[in-house]
Amino acid sequence: MEFRFVVDDLASTSFAYSPLQEAVFSLRCLHDPARYPHHRPWLRRFRPRLESLDRELLTALVAPWLWVPDFLTPRPSRARPAFADELRAVRRTPPGTVAADFRATYRTDEALPPVVARGIADPAAFLDRVADALEAYWHTCLGDGWWPRVQSILEADLAHQARVLAEQGAAALFAGLDPRLVWTGDQLLLERHGDTAPWPTADIRIAGRGLVLIPTLFARGAQTVIDASRPPMLVYPARGRAVLSEAPPPVTDRALVRLLGRPRARLLSLLAEPASTTELAHRLDVTPGAVSQHLAVLYDAGLLSRTRAGRTVRYRRTSLGDALCR
């Protein structure tokens, strides 16, 4: 595959990442989990949740050779788009594009899964079903516990690539994304081998449209869209994927002490129930003035609430303080 650059095309090349693309590409794990060993802990946790979702459809969004319809992975409109914004763009896909992209993904109508073959008979309604299924999948399996960790890996990758480009130039940048990428000065050549299915050759002219480079945790080599006429983008394996399988260290009381300091950690622990400055000073055997200073800091940080009864002010942990103690 050849990406052809003209004057200023390299200057308009940029990086982005896409929560929608990561959601769609993560469905590849359902087909071939052995290809993604770093995701096994996450897979074990979320598999039971799939039973409440449209699993037949979600599985059918990825062909056995791990291709996905192009309309589900549009080029990001900015460096860090929100999932909801990207999904709204998917919902605006022309119905004809939905059917065409599924046929291109599965290469023949005979290979279409039954749920897809039935759905593209009414592509507008099928598009709604696909978008609804992805939205439910995101909120049930990905949005809270998984995406923040993935996002941190993608952010670190973007920072690394920017440093490589600044210090070593475009040739080193592209070679670092995938050894099969070769920069010649006006062309970016991608040699396709080792993929699950042969991609068509393509002569992709950037022609002022800009090339967007997108890291992902679900590719073992660089890839692009099936339809080479779409806005040019190149998806590549993100650095640091292995850290996703690392279990975070357990939360202990000592962690709270390191974060807040021993006096404030002790105060926060005591304030599961309301107490006044005087009561706390008596329990800790310190002066009320010392307690008051620490309470003011914890209150300003949103970890405590306070109520007044006459001349007495009583403090208590907020929900944020409760969560921090847990």
Automatic annotation (TrEMBL):
The entry's keywords? DNA-binding, Transcription, Transcription regulation
Keyword DNA-binding in annotation: yes
Q: Which residues form a coiled coil?
A: none
Give the SUPFAM superfamilies listed for this entry. Answer: Winged helix' DNA-binding domain
The lineage's top-level taxon is Bacteria
Q: Which SMART domains match?
A: HTH_ARSR
Q: Which residues form the HTH arsR-type domain?
A: 255-325
A single MF term (Gene Ontology): DNA binding
> Any idea what this protein is called?
HTH arsR-type domain-containing protein
